């Protein structure tokens, strides 16, 4: 390869990396990136945020960014959770005081140690939001993150997230997932800031979260849709790859059946494919662009395994469970 070609390829790579970096962080994030990794108190951090931002929306985003950039998920604590602290009380007021004291301890531990599980992330977010005058709630419920979660029979209370009231509208926030993800190939947490779980579209949010209350702002949510829906990923939310068809994440087929899919915002020019059961990529070649998306068919045969996951470039966007009749 000639020196000119090498320089050109390096330049293209630099441009691509810069573009990816620029897309990852917005104007608020870029200011927060310059903050110290540690503040002496949560009040000092809140003062800095109030100094730098005027709107509640930007303040809420700044809290999200600082936590996601600086607090790591404590996977060791997840695997070996501490014993639940019990306490006695004589009145509701005393109960609330003791709960508040436990929450204060959790906030301090997450803030000082820079490590937490989802409960620590949510109480720290709520605490900082209260310091800048933003109303914030903690919601507990189920999460959907793995292929085996498609078609589960029951929900469980295994996760927590926040809702913040901004401009008279409740916004959904999951700062735990904003800080990174579990890399199963390496057996550890990967730090990878993502903004998609700040003010997430409820349709996408509740495809991956199901509250214990089974409702959102007074409206009942469908447990069946949550349990049986396809598994979606961060890139699905970021690029608005809405799945228009099929309706369910569980597909019952016989050998030779054609399965029709339609996904929004994908075009024929995209590097779009799925993995067969040998983890080999199979490019989608029969796609038809239709109403701002791509409609295509997959013929079920013995090369397709129990799950089928679709990718754009190297990013997984949707997975379905295949049930052979």
TrEMBL record:
<dbReference type="GO" id="GO:0005737">
    <property type="term" value="C:cytoplasm"/>
</dbReference>
<protein>
    <submittedName>
        <fullName>Transglutaminase</fullName>
    </submittedName>
</protein>
<dbReference type="InterPro" id="IPR002931">
    <property type="entry name" value="Transglutaminase-like"/>
</dbReference>
<dbReference type="InterPro" id="IPR038765">
    <property type="entry name" value="Papain-like_cys_pep_sf"/>
</dbReference>
<dbReference type="InterPro" id="IPR052557">
    <property type="entry name" value="CAP/Cytokinesis_protein"/>
</dbReference>
<feature type="domain" description="Transglutaminase-like">
    <location>
        <begin position="110"/>
        <end position="177"/>
    </location>
</feature>
<dbReference type="Pfam" id="PF01841">
    <property type="entry name" value="Transglut_core"/>
</dbReference>
